[in-house]
Amino acid sequence: MITINHLCKSFGDKEVLKDISAEFENGKTNLIIGQSGSGKTVLIKNLVGLLSPTSGEILYDGRDFSAMTKKEKVMLRREIGMLFQSSALFDSMTVMQNVMFPLDMFSGMTLRDRMRRARTCLDRVNITDAENKFPGEISGGMQKRVAIARAIALNPKYLFCDEPNSGLDPKTSLVIDDLLHSITQEYNITTIINTHDMNSVMGIGENIIFIYEGHKEWQGVSGDIMESDNKRLTDFIFASDLLKNMRRAVLEKGHNAPKAINA
Q: Could you give the CA distance from residue 29 to residue 26 in angstroms, rounded to a whole number?
């Protein structure tokens, strides 16, 4: 579990994060949502140590990140997996070499064991016949799955995903969502996903934090969104007329349902 207490971040006179407190739970897909410029990316960068908060606490299973020594932070980062928006695979490396990269850098495993672990991770994301191909020779969806395999190679406790469905078609996006969700549950990972994808929000949003102008506006699960009376949240989620009509239909159905069903 990752806990943040009264987290604030300013750049000069501009306060970007304003007294945010939240918990990101183990074994669940924790989503951070909000409009562009709301502070989502700054929040993620503070969580992984790319930025330092102006004030407040970041606790990794009770361990205060800001109070750690440099050596302790390096050790903690070995427990963190990262899935970048662009996949960030090395073009000059094969699929196998990309997945092995964190193992080569941070593990003391033999070459044979590193290769075995990499193949296990590729098998987990349903890629078994592309290990000798280069990223440019496979589709965007396959590249994303390779990036997931690389992110879990070191058996991370914490997995951070920045817009994992960016640039993918809706069908492939659902595959990536299902994969992230199942891996999170299977390995009891604390997964934090920064996303604009409303299909992800409604499909795998087990713990959703909505950031508005730098503060936590709302927190809940996907099932709560349809009936939320938070106007800023609903304006963001149901921005299109189609989604607004879907929400209206769901609410009307609930209001007109027999009392026995609503009980």
A: 8
